[in-house]
Amino acid sequence: MLILAGLGNPGAKYAFNRHNFGAMAVDAIASRWNFGPERKRFSSLAREGEIPLAAGGGAKALILKPQTFYNDSGLAVRDAMGFYKLAPADVVAFYDEIDLAPGRFRMKTGGGAAGNNGIRSITAHIGPDFRRARLGSGHPGHKDKVMGHVLSDFHKVELGWVKQLLQACADAAPFLAAGEDERYQAEVMRLAPAEKLDPKGGGRDI
Q1: DSSP H/E element including 46
Q2: Taking Cα atoms as reference points, which of 66, 61, 95 lies closest to residue 179?
Q3: What H or E segment, with its residue span, contains residue 99?
Q4: Which CATH superfamily is domain 2-191 in?
Q5: How many CA atoms lie within 13 A of 175 on its CB side?
Q6: Which of 19, 125, 139, 149 is catalytic?
Q7: In this predicted model, what pLDDT tens digit does every residue of 128-181 receive, in sequence order?
Q8: Which of 62, 105, 144, 184 has its CA 20 to 30 A from that of 190?
């Protein structure tokens, strides 16, 4: 069993916020691979399903959208992981990353939270060694503007690359399910290419 946790805030008010990018991504995966109906479990909205593997068969997965609010995401992840008796390596957290340029995508395992309170919460409850799927949402340019930025909706002019990246995350999911994170990252960026720009505008991607 693989837990795909999409970070975000609960309710229609936040549904299209940049901070709900992770929740949008796991929704796209669930739709692409025909997961079961959504139901309330582990203080979350959850869907069960199977992602096919290139070698044959499939990997069982649980889509998890914590309803605890973004900063307490770790509570839901901990409960689901404990119920299925899984290890941190069986958890993939999808979340918005302001330190990646819009449309960029990176996979990593372990490391710090880099100021992301949702990731900090998961680390506090299960340790740092879970997998992270980071969806670039760009930086507003100044730390005082970050809160307003992440709690704002994507602009209409951004919806093209947003939808392309979400679809790429879903279409490439067999690599993720097989544990091939580098191939997953490469395939997502092949399907949804984005320029390597500094998230604060111009320059190098970080």
Answers
A1: strand 44-52
A2: 61
A3: none
A4: Peptidyl-tRNA hydrolase (3.40.50.1470)
A5: 16
A6: 19
A7: 999 999 999 988 888 888 889 999 999 999 999 999 999 999 999 999 999 999
A8: 62
Using alpha carbons, select from 43, 96, 38 the residue that is nearest to residue 62.
38
Beta-carbon neighbour count of residue 132 at 10 Å? 24
Task: Report yes or no: 180 and 58 within 8 Å, Cβ to Cβ.
Answer: no
Instruction: Compute CA distances 181 → 28, 44, 52, 171, 189, whole Å.
Output: 18, 25, 15, 14, 12
CA dist., res. 140 & res. 146, Å (int): 6
Of the candidates 56, 4, 11, 58, the residue with the CA atom closest to the CA atom of residue 28:
4
Write the single-letter amino acid at 6. Answer: G
Looking at residue 113, its pLDDT comes to: 92
Tell me which amino acid residue 58 is: G
- Relative to beta strand 91-97, strand 105-109 is unpaired
Yes or no: say if 125 and 75 are a contact pair by the CB < 8 Å rule: yes
19 is catalytic: yes
Residue 140 has a pLDDT of: 84
Q: Residue 56 has which token pair?
A: 């044959």
Q: Which helix (H) or strand (E) holds 107?
A: strand 105-109
Q: Which two tokens stand for residue 166?
A: 């979400």
What does the DSSP 8-state code read for residue 184? H
